[in-house]
Amino acid sequence: xxxxxxxxxxxxxxxxxxxxxxxxxxxxxxxxxxxxxxxxxxxxxxxxxxxxxxxxxxxxxxxxxxxxxxxxxxxxxxxxxxxxxxxxxxxxxxxxxxxxxxxxxxxxxxxxxxxxxxxxxxxxxxxxxxxxxxxxxxxxxxxxxxxxxxxxxxxxxxxxxxxxxxxxxxxxxxxxxxxxxxxxxxxxxxxxxxxxxxxxxxxxxxxxxxxxxxxxxxxxxxxxxxxxxxxxxxxxxxxxxxxxxxxxxxxxxxxxxxxxxxxxxxxxxxxxxxxxxxxxxxxxxxxxxxxxx
Length: 293
Description:
Shape: globular
Structural class: alpha+beta
Oligomer: single chain
Protein name: Acyl-CoA acyltransferase
Keywords: Acyltransferase, Transferase
Number of domains: 2
Strand content: 25-35%
InterPro entries: Acyl_CoA_acyltransferase, GNAT_dom
GO molecular function, one term: acyltransferase activity
């Protein structure tokens, strides 16, 4: 008898697939626990997402069993009258015996011309593959800042955003919603209040592994402009010191004037393709706040 070829197809991930997808990703990324993946997938299940786009991403289905997955996180960064669709291509894994079909996932996931696609966590060994798919680096590294050494913003007051907040004084409603929902994801959302006006920021606890040790630092997830962080660095630094954090990582393409710290291109490269150029200092609604570092 002639052996039947497996029926491989690419389809959208459904809520009924989440347990199996978490198991698959746990095998593919053994440093991450099953609870880590389920937590992020459940946050994706309940978040607001643009209508008409996949909520979770795509999987390779082998006769009813998932054998590959590419997580997608869609968001609309536009206005009430003009949408601006972004998609974070997140974790990608295919079982070894099915890797000949891996390009099916990437082709279907990147086919929409109106969408700006970003890859913010490409491992160094995958950079040539990402570039071959048409992506270009918009961020070449990170700046590790020590904001408490700065004198900028010393007279300002830092106000932490509560997870049950409904509105924030002086902050537009859409931006207030961003700060509140990221606080609910476990991020540190703050408003720096000074004579120059309120400055909204979102930071996240991360650990940078250096040899055997993982150093606790913060990652800048959202700001209107990196210059806002620079202008309030002293106030932020002292606020973080009381919480046991010394450093803040910022996406950068070189040293940042006005900050104490150092730049490195050994980590932090980020890619994009599509109609819009991402700006540095905006990682909101991506895998970092949704899944965690």
